[in-house]
Amino acid sequence: MDFKPGDKVRFLNTTGGGTVKKNINSFMVSVAIDDGFEIPTLTSELVLIEQSGINDRMFIRDNENIPALKPTPPEPIEADRISSIQLRGKDHSFPSGIFLAYAPQDQQWIMAGNIDIYLINNTDFDILYSFFLKDDGGKFSGMDYGSLTQGSKLAIESIVREDIAQWSSGVIQVLFHQDEGEKVLMPVSATFRIKGTSFYKDTSYKECGLLGNQKAIVYTVCELNRVPSTIEHLLNEKEDIDSLPEAAKQFNPGSVIDRYKISPREAEVDLHISALKENYNSLSPREILTIQLGTFERMLESAMANNYTRVVFIHGIGNGTLKQSLIDRIKDYGDLEFRNASFAKYGNGAIELIIHQNM
Description:
Blueprint: E1 8-11, E2 17-25, E3 28-32, E4 38-42, E5 46-50, H1 79-82, E6 85-86, E7 97-104, E8 115-122, E9 126-134, E10 140-148, E11 152-159, E12 169-177, E13 188-193, E14 206-208, E15 214-223, H2 231-235, H3 243-249, E16 261-263, E17 266-270, H4 273-276, H5 285-305, E18 310-314, H6 321-330, E19 336-340, H7 343-346, E20 350-355
Parallel strand pairs: 17-18
Antiparallel strand pairs: 1-2, 1-5, 2-3, 3-4, 6-11, 7-8, 7-15, 8-11, 9-10, 9-12, 12-13, 14-15, 16-17, 18-20, 19-20
């Protein structure tokens, strides 16, 4: 549907709405919301509430002299991008682990154009992987599988913007391999879900050293120091043969929030770095914040997927950086209410999230 400046619209996939301020291109408009911010939004994600009237002329058509961008099919993946490519450098803000990255092909216009989707192996292990997408009906489709050598990346697919919703939710499974090592890591099966609106916010894209400082949205599949090993089972000759499957249940990423359960469907997560890592004295403030935010996102995703209704995140007092970062991340999720947690119990050091979709 074509929208004009002045049209009042409602967001289709999240709460709220606003007024169309200008047309960015043939499939995207800028929507002014109540707090004065303008959000680039796909027209397919908007519902018309009220057409513009005689006040149309009050809106400035900033794009009148700019030719509309037409969606183009993604560029085919070049031969040297089909196989894995060694990472260009270390980015110490990223821990050792597996990551999924969405990098705009045109780094000058990060909110328009096609997007390359990368799987990044920032570990000392070779991996086997399977990549599944989840559709609106809850069914899974196997999209890709293969191997990825240690310290390398692989371009899984190049997509057009209209396909973002199809490629932002699914499951990644990983098997780790080393020719020699002190332990054998358990397989990982991790769900991922990235809010569609994140792709239309400048602040969502961060420079990623693992991609040669390209700007990208990066999702943590797993951190290596959080992947359990089977060494304790291999060394214990008296272990009952049925205990391994039972023990493996606690490592299911989908139920990881259960370790923080304080009552039915409620959890409390301490984000102090001392509660997340044993050895943290050598970490920079940026590395600490990255670990804390990664933990927050994984626990929130797990709580949402496992029917939790309330989660308290303890952020401490500090200088307020962590709390503000949490609030910024919360804005990317729908059906969430946040407030300061009980002052009597936590002082000013915690926030409480209410997950309305599970109520």
